[in-house]
Amino acid sequence: AEAVSQADKIRAGAEALAVLDVSAALALLSESEAWCRPIVDASLAFAISGGRHPVVEQSLRRSGEGPFVANDCDLSPEGNAKNGAIWLLTGPNMGGKSTFLRQNALIAILAQTGSFVPAASAHIGVVDRLFSRVGASDDLARGRSTFMVEMVETAAILNQAGERALVILDEIGRGTATFDGLSIAWAAVEYLHEKNRCRAIFATHFHEMTALASKLARLHNVTMRVKEWEGDVVFLHEVGKGAADRSYGVQVARLAGLPEAVVGRAREVLHQLEAGEVSGKANRLVDDLPLFSVAVKREAPRQVKDDALGAALGAINPDEMTPREALEALYRLKGMAGK
Hints:
- It is built from 11 helices and 10 strands.
- With 339 residues, the chain is α/β, with parallel strands linked by helices.
- It has 4 domains: 1-32; 35-256, P-loop containing nucleotide triphosphate hydrolases (Rossmann fold), CATH 3.40.50; 258-304, no CATH class; 306-339, no CATH class.
């Protein structure tokens, strides 16, 4: 009974302790992870320099997979423009598009909670609503397919987003036929630009959409950079200006462990489709490339060469080297690479 009579004071004390706990935790995290103090004002700016995803960064560090690659994002109005920009983000699967979308949304949320943010610098005009359409899921209980759920959520965004909103959209239209999906994604970007007039990042594999940049003044093409090396693809996880011309889906499938026969067959089909030799007719494709003919083919074994550079690199333990030893090792590796 005595505790009940003091319920209001106990609740107030608990709330105060919660605020103190969260504030202390954020302060400790900001100090240990080199987060910066963001500028939050009434403008429509959204300028992030060296932004990082805090969860993915910690995961990479714990697994020893290397440092997180920081990226910039600038959706601020340009020149005399009254509204923020839209970035059309293209790039390969596994290139880091979804991570880039999420990290900028997280930075906006953290900044407006009063926290420091995982970036070198950040200037964010107040975001009144944050809309996200990322990932794929169905709703079996309500009889909704993955594509239907995607369309319902996209409709909510297009009907509610205003100029102060921040919108992140990931591969709208992928759940249906190619031309249907492309048409929907194309129209959605135009609507975001002309009607919603919000700051947005729109990730897509429909490379045809990059042509919109010449039509829509506030739309800019950016891409996740990659390097091709001996038939494989190396993900750099860097965002740069420009547009991707390929999704590297076959290379990603090979990395995932698909049988070499399937990968080889996929390359043959892709080559004919890109060459326009079958004009999209499935029956001709089947006739030209019998499905099971690939079973009797064997991919030529790759020549195994003496990788002295790789062996020398693998023998180095950077944690046990002095700065001078590291520099000498770098010059030695450079000399080996030039041979």
